[in-house]
Design goal:
Shape: globular
Number of strands: 9
Strand order of the largest sheet: 5-4-3-6-7-9-8
Number of helices: 4
Number of domains: 1
Radius of gyration: 15 Å
CATH topology: Rossmann fold
CATH architecture: 3-Layer(aba) Sandwich
CATH superfamily: Vaccinia Virus protein VP39
Largest sheet: 7 strands, mixed
Oligomer: single chain
Mean pLDDT: 90
Structural class: alpha/beta
């Protein structure tokens, strides 16, 4: 069973679904939010208050719901599997107020990737696609024209994945966890 690791809903259990998702481990979630909070303090960035966490390839919502528990104002989830979205919605209703989440059913790789949402208040974008399945360069290029200079993009991938980072995006930190790596990115 997967539980929230920090904040207001620490130890709250989340529903899951077998065979469709690979939830981010508790260790990686703790390390991720520790890295984000440290970066925000050093750079005087407001990560949480009245801000939005954009969770791409959301699965059951583990990362976005962790962000809500830690004080994020809202989460926008993108997921394309109907069965997974049912579990995601159930988890959101357990953790969030009605206005704290939006769920979009969209295939971010095989669609036009327009993401018709407002990007001004998004402080973190978390991208956790199925490993070794997609080239994410087009998605990252699409985000470049929508995000602001303070938005942080975190990309979780297998250490075997070849990640192409567009020219206008700067890699400011990279953390390895066994067979997983998280790239921390921002506009150059």
């Amino acid at each position: 069973m997967i539980s929230i690791t920090g904040g207001k809903f620490k130890r709250k259990k989340l529903s899951s679904i077998d065979n469709f998702v690979r939830p981010t481990s508790a260790l990686r979630r703790e390390a991720f939010f520790s890295t984000m909070e440290s970066y925000a303090i050093k750079n005087s960035i407001n990560l949480y208050e009245n801000k939005i966490f954009l969770d791409l390839f959301a699965g059951i919502g583990t990362m976005g719901l962790e962000a809500i528990s830690r004080g994020m104002g809202k989460v926008i989830f993108f997921e394309n599997n109907k069965k997974v979205i049912q579990v995601l919605k159930k988890n959101c209703l357990e953790i969030c107020n009605g206005n704290q989440f939006e769920i979009y059913e969209e295939d971010l790789i095989n669609s036009s990737m327009e993401m018709e949402i407002e990007f001004n208040d998004i402080s973190i974008i978390y991208i956790d696609p199925p490993y070794k399945k997609y080239n994410l360069k087009n998605l990252l290029n699409n985000l470049i024209n929508k995000i602001n200079i303070k938005t942080i993009i975190a990309l979780e991938a297998s250490i075997r994945d070849k990640i192409e980072i567009p020219d206008r995006i700067n890699l400011f930190q990279k953390k390895k966890y066994n067979k997983t790596v998280i790239y921390f990115l921002k506009l150059s």
